[in-house]
């Protein structure tokens, strides 16, 4: 089960489609961005289509519950353990946080399975085999309509006509069975996924250690992005002239307001700025794996480094308005 959205003049029309591994298609559901339904909007739609209205044309919890009743009517599930229906969905909130639909599915003998995030492009049969040809056929029908109606523009009253023609071309037995086969759902085939399919997950993979080493009391001061040290603040307290934030890994962020800075080469007094130092645990194994680490190979320098930096993030850190510090130079001191 999945949905596809058509945009006409900045508005959305949602089509909810469903197909089975045996090649059967449940009549789609169309959601128009309207308050009331106009019968003329239904012209040319596939037989048995369910028409609904919503302010923005999006799927909601209430609309999905109505579609579940529509699905039960055509799928005719059975509570017999050997005849139950497995309904595969994406993780949209209208599916996963819908108690009404879940109760209806349980009473009818339907097992609802929600796919993990960022996997529907390889695991949802509709995304794999159906939506691409459907979009292609819809674009062809739209181009044909524009050529035959010069000077006119497409509106919601033509959407179902064009969609109905495209849907009848795309909804075939081979398309449905091929989608389930290429996803490895039916027939069950785990070999459809290669090692390269899991390569992106290695970027965020973190191995757990049996014992955590003792934390060293020594700290270092490094030049790192300010936001990297405050992703998960565990403790925040104020001190004279600024703010200090400490996260769970022991990293400490000191933000100090500087009202006077040394004169530059032109002899003109510098504008107010913020002095920021970041103290991180010396043991790299204690650092949060999600936090970026300083670039290797940079030699320690005693002189000050002045760089231009946009300080808009400090407004959210301190939770007060600090307009004077926006787009002003920030002095990072690296020891």
Could you describe the 3D structure shown?
Helices cover 26% and strands 23% of the residues. It folds into two domains: 2-202, no CATH class; 219-332, no CATH class. A hairpin with a 4-residue loop joins β9 (242-247) and β10. The two termini are 58 Å apart. The strands form three sheets. Strands 7, 8, 9, 10, 11, 12 and 13 form a seven-stranded mixed beta sheet that branches. Strands 1-2-3-4 form a four-stranded mixed beta sheet, with helices on both faces. It is built from eight helices and 13 strands. With 335 residues, it is of the alpha+beta class.
Main beta-sheet annotation: 7 strands, mixed
Count of spatially separate domains: 2
Q: Report how far the terminal alpha carbons are from each other.
A: 58 Å
Number of strands: 13
Order of helices and strands: EEEEHEHHEHHHHEEEEEEHE
Low-confidence stretches: 214-240, 257-262, 266-278, 298-335
Bin the strand percentage.
Answer: 15-25%
Mean pLDDT reading: 74
Q: Total number of helical segments?
A: 8
Query: Looking at the structure, what is the overall shape?
Result: globular
Query: Class by helix and strand content?
Result: alpha+beta
Helix content: 25-40%
Q: What is the radius of gyration computed over CA atoms, rounded to a whole number of angstroms?
A: 29 Å
């Amino acid at each position: 089960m999945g949905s596809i959205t058509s945009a006409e003049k900045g508005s959305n029309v949602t089509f909810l489609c469903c197909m089975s591994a045996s090649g059967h298609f449940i009549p789609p559901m169309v959601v128009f961005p309207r308050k009331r339904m106009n019968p003329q909007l239904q012209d040319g739609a596939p037989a048995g289509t369910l028409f609904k209205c919503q302010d923005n044309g999006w799927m909601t919890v209430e609309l999905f519950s109505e579609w579940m009743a529509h699905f039960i009517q055509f799928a005719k599930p059975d509570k017999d353990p050997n005849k139950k229906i497995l309904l595969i969905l994406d993780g949209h909130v209208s599916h996963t946080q819908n108690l009404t639909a879940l109760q209806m599915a349980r009473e009818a003998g339907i097992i609802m399975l929600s796919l993990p995030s960022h996997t529907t492009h390889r695991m949802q049969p509709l995304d794999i085999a159906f939506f691409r040809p459907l979009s292609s056929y819809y674009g062809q029908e739209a181009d044909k309509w524009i050529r035959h109606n010069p000077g006119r523009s497409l509106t919601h009253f033509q959407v179902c006509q064009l969609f109905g023609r495209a849907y009848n071309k795309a909804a075939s037995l081979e398309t449905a069975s091929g989608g389930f086969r290429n996803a490895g759902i039916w027939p069950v085939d785990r070999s459809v996924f290669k090692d390269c399919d899991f390569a992106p997950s290695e970027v965020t993979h973190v191995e757990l250690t049996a014992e955590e080493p003792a934390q060293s009391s020594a700290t270092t001061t490094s030049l790192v992005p300010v936001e990297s040290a405050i992703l998960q603040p565990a403790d925040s307290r104020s001190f004279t002239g600024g703010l200090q934030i400490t996260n769970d890994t022991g990293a400490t962020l000191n933000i100090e307001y500087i009202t006077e800075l040394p004169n530059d080469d032109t002899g003109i007094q510098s504008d107010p700025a913020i002095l920021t130092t970041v103290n991180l645990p010396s043991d790299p194994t204690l650092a949060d794996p999600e936090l970026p680490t300083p670039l290797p190979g940079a030699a320690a320098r005693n002189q000050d480094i002045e760089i231009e930096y946009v300080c808009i993030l400090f407004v959210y850190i301190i939770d007060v308005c600090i307009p004077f510090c926006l787009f002003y130079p920030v002095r990072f001191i690296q020891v």
